Amino acid sequence: MVLAAARLQTIVCVRDLSLSEKFYVRALGLPIRARLPGTLLLDAGGSDLRVVQVEQTTPSQHTVIGFAVPDVDAAMAALAGRGLVAERFTGFNHAANGVIVAPDGSRVAWLRDPDSNLLSVVELAAPG
Questions:
Q1: pTM value?
Q2: Cα separation of 104 and 87, whole Å?
Q3: Could you count the other beta carbons within 10 Å of the beta carbon of residue 66?
Q4: Would you say residue 97 lies in a domain?
Q5: Quick check: is 47 in a domain?
Q6: How many domains does the chain fold into?
Q7: How far is CA 75 from CA 35, 92, 125, in A?
Q8: Mind listing the pLDDT tens digit for each residue in 30-52?
């Protein structure tokens, strides 16, 4: 496959790069790799996350970025300590910290960035 060995990069579109920098760098703790015209290049666990300023965006209804963590409860506690609040959805059985258990046993919570892009924080279920 042509792209099988390609390094994946994620791109998220935002209206205000300065506001998004505060969210992605300060609140989420992602290091800056580079500042480019209209773009922040961030390091997300060794992968590139490009935060790109655009004129208009539409709030996402589905997850656009997912962060796999070893302990979702610890991650959500740290994010709550930085002022972030978990997104809650009708019909889901959320724990106090916003975490739900998915059908495969994974544990997941969601957040929204300043442009209402939906982000997930997930502790993946053990294979098997």
A1: 0.92
A2: 20
A3: 14
A4: yes
A5: yes
A6: 1
A7: 26, 20, 16
A8: 999 999 999 999 999 999 999 99
